[in-house]
Amino acid sequence: MINRPRIFSLDDTQQSVLNEHGFHGQDILSVNQFTPASLDYIFDVAEEMRAMVGRKGGADLLQGRVLSCLFYEPSTRTSASFIAAMERLGGSVIPITQGVQFSSVSKGETLHDTIRTLEQYSDVIVLRHPEKGAAAIAAAAADIPVINAGDGAGEHPTQALLDLFTIREELGRLDGLHIAMVGDLRYGRTVHSLTQLLTGYDVQLSFVSPEILRLPLDYMNQVRDAGKTVRETYSVADVIASADVLYVTRVQKERFTDLAQYEEVKDFYRITPELMDRAKPNAIVMHPLPRVNEIDVRVDTDPRAAYFRQVKNGMYIRMALLAAVLGKA
Amino acid sequence: MINRPRIFSLDDTQQSVLNEHGFHGQDILSVNQFTPASLDYIFDVAEEMRAMVGRKGGADLLQGRVLSCLFYEPSTRTSASFIAAMERLGGSVIPITQGVQFSSVSKGETLHDTIRTLEQYSDVIVLRHPEKGAAAIAAAAADIPVINAGDGAGEHPTQALLDLFTIREELGRLDGLHIAMVGDLRYGRTVHSLTQLLTGYDVQLSFVSPEILRLPLDYMNQVRDAGKTVRETYSVADVIASADVLYVTRVQKERFTDLAQYEEVKDFYRITPELMDRAKPNAIVMHPLPRVNEIDVRVDTDPRAAYFRQVKNGMYIRMALLAAVLGKA
Amino acid sequence: MINRPRIFSLDDTQQSVLNEHGFHGQDILSVNQFTPASLDYIFDVAEEMRAMVGRKGGADLLQGRVLSCLFYEPSTRTSASFIAAMERLGGSVIPITQGVQFSSVSKGETLHDTIRTLEQYSDVIVLRHPEKGAAAIAAAAADIPVINAGDGAGEHPTQALLDLFTIREELGRLDGLHIAMVGDLRYGRTVHSLTQLLTGYDVQLSFVSPEILRLPLDYMNQVRDAGKTVRETYSVADVIASADVLYVTRVQKERFTDLAQYEEVKDFYRITPELMDRAKPNAIVMHPLPRVNEIDVRVDTDPRAAYFRQVKNGMYIRMALLAAVLGKA
Fold first, then answer.
1. Which fold, B7-155+312-325?
2. What residues of A are in the B interface, CB distance below 8 Å?
3. What was the ipTM of the complex prediction?
């Protein structure tokens, strides 16, 4: 850690370190573009951001820079996180988080043209869009960096990064851990992206889900091809004693055609204080939020409940990415 | 006034004065939490804010601080006031003033979880919510200060503070005044809160309303228990000659089951230039706005029309409160 | 250019130059309020803004100043442009760009009262409204400057200014040019305003449209009264070889009662690479955007396609206007 770049007063050497990692001017579209080394770099910057926020709330690193926050579907959590990240770095935001569908778009403008318009006003664009591939279209249209904040069934790479960062922050390492994914592993985009990232580390993975919500085969094959130890099971009870991380997602009633089946299995994926009594003393519980009842609110006061700290890490990760793609960032 | 704290360059003594008043880190939920002394303190700070804005527009007192402005129902006036207040102090805002209902909330997230999420990004939360008690729930959930910007039939304390501050600013004092509340005294939340605050001062109160919109008994009893001189009447004509303050609210047609009755009484509560001819030369007319036709627009040019100055005072009060709860504010 | 005011460090002389042009404290409501001299002044300031943004992204010229961005109808492009303009000058924004109709307005508040309220919080108001004349009503209500960002069938003066500025920036001059307006010249507000501004210069004008979308007679008479050389034609092919500027707008199918007629003429107004092969090497193609298919996307890579640079000029013009009306700008 001694020689890690200090992003708040970059000298030429540090600037070149940053440039070497190739983020300046780049889009953030997919977890696939990250290597363990570039992840380490972003995580180190995110830690600096945390320290800076703790010390003085914000910096003026991105003063004079403007972020277009373009959300074609509402996502309060994600847009708020990016807005806070930009503002805490001294930058400004054009918030286009509501009603995009009523404006230019309804006049028939293509995403390409909307992006080319917004890049005239801004230095970086954060895009949320309901359609897979929208982020790539936007990135192709824009000369300025585009950050994918979720494109439908596609990716949501900043969520995956903050998830991985949280594990590293909470447990001090990634290698050697047993990580259990719990709940809806079939449709859960965050599970897929985090699983992909984890294949770069020496981890043991467990996948806990109902039969109809098992991890899709191609993700499972990626994990196996990477030589990870994998276990699949129907109940979180099977992994609770050995897991270092419980990454919980919601099992939605709507996924079941046979409601009797839902009733039968739903409690297998619910985290309660009673279940936590059997967990390791240093295990952590994560959740991408919003949560409904898959984590009992009584668990919130358990120091091992990491999901709100995870939210905060999202802001630090986004600060790091904004600084990085803007090149000094 | 000589020794009042100068909020823009706080030394240790001044900081401790501020802390003594107990605002640092506190929630602003109800008018009941204010004493005449703490009101005086906030009003003094608000006066400083006015002077600062007049001199240079803004300050950098809250630079690096972030306000989450979370409005579950739209209120342009109130949200704009808080946003301007935060921005003029050099802070930043996450504006969540539209469509909250379409986002996390629609995914079943509780207010508790939404608040716990937003507090990760921000230093203070301003909440508007249609349900009474929502502000208290939010305050219990958050470690950072929550300011109640109206919770349904509950309270809207910053409105009450700006109302009281306006009287003090316009007339130079609170004690010794005759204050007439006019219009809908039954449902008018601002009337109830201001009435409660006024019981702490040596004032004479008149309540002018139709029979069906009289001040509820519990508020009336509070006033009487505080030993105030009280008068109730059906027509503003009865108080116009002696009132120092006319606090006007709208008598809504919808409140009447018998429309003939509405037609009969509506003009008793309407402020016109002709009526103002009979008012004291230093009387003021206030209104929480929006106004429809309960104040004739011709009154706007009367120097005694204080309602737009009252709006401006709202910004100063909110600046003072934001600075105070953020502890140096 | 040597003695033009340097807006970022105004000395007293420069300040007085700015004041002489009469923008300080003024509203921007119509293109009619501009003279060629005052346009030159604004364009010079806009060029300074471009240079400043290129050099360092933003300035702190309007630090402590607050813009109320009040949009009664959504227009992502225009609101984003004003927000970016204000933020790049170090000012802050109250964004009221969605749902105005659900708030105060739905409670029956007049535009006059809404404007008088917002002026308490802010230093300048940008208004978009669906009704012609709304900007004038707002300007009459407010003591602070109001900038018309489009009032229905009325005007949209900042668009006209950015259009004219773009011609000057792209071609180095206004006098001596042949400018062809193409498409819907009847309903196109931007065409009308730009045409009016161009009557102040030594230009040749061509109007290319279907019969039912010809330029209204009063605008045509203004142009003729100003002694301009004018040509009207049905097809852009007739002007392509000699035009210096093609100002393209959309021919909407909905305007035609006889769809066969639309099908017959629509291609007369479509800009394609094949058409551009016959255009002058230094000609430029402009469009107020959004564009649908009236300009082939393959034209985008033609260096003569100026429409996205035109968007960027909109930000510089708005920066210049905000600075000018705030008097230091």
1. Rossmann fold (3.40.50)
2. 56-59, 74-77, 80-81, 83-84, 87-88, 95, 97-99, 289-292, 297, 308-309, 311-312, 314-315
3. 0.91
